[in-house]
Amino acid sequence: MGYLFGPVLSRRLGLSMGVDLLKHKTCNLDCIYCELGRTRCLTRYRDRFVPPQKVLQEIKARRSEPFDYLTFAGSGEPTLSLDLGKIVAEAREIVEAPVAVITNSTLLTSPAVRREVAAADVVLPSLDAASVESFRAINRPASDLKIDKIIQGLKDFRKEFSGEIWLEVMLVKGINDRDAELIARAAESTEPDRIQLNTVVRTPAEPVEPLSEEEMKKMLEIFPGAELIPDWDWSVPPATRDKLLNLLSFETCTLEEICGRLDLAGSDAIKYCKIMERDGLISRRLCGGKLCFQVAVKPYYNQKKI
Ligand code: SF4
Fold this sequence. Notes:
alpha/beta, TIM Barrel, Arc Repressor Mutant, subunit A, binds iron/sulfur cluster
């Protein structure tokens, strides 16, 4: 076990259960903004990195946990795994949630890879450059990768895939923002369902600068119809937060008990618990092997009742 991670709160996918088919960190790019750090294993070859049957066993074992998407992502570029297509197709039969693949788009030049990725419900490719210079500057690719071919691969994929394509464009100050017009035209030409603009929010591989909120809003004029990937704006509806705090002030509850008592769907309950944990309002512990939640600090009005 250990091929799944999360579920994590994702800005694009809600509560996302990650599947990692790679070894840390295996990629054909070495993006300057990568939150995984420098690419130590810069490879252009597809390979088997993990045993597929074990991954599928783990997906089966965790299928009933609440999550909004099962997402193929993780320690590098998922399309470098030769098992991606098989595992995605089988995972769709196992889990109820839609299956998403996050990819840097580079291998969509290959018809075989496009067929494998097309087994997903949603594909989240990225495109940060439209010229050789900015591709080198921001993505630092393995030597044989060509940006014009990658853009053509995205166009071909659009023709072959009827599911949702959400194209991400990462903008880094002074690196590719000057090429925004060119990138916008290239992004539009690939006809994705959504274009999502992002800037550096997590600790990057290199000391690069994000665009300001104002600069990102201006980018929407260059990328008409695009959207900004929202900031970490998770919040719990106040009435639900109060009810949950009140419940947990009196007793420690499992996730199932929280769902039953507050009439919440499993994915909402785990999402709210994670947010309230992050905010220091509640904490988790294991009770008889089950995950339970309790208040971190008892509210004043309940302390008085005891
Ligand atoms: S493609 Fe993704 S994993 Fe690879 S270097 Fe870029 S950000 Fe990191």
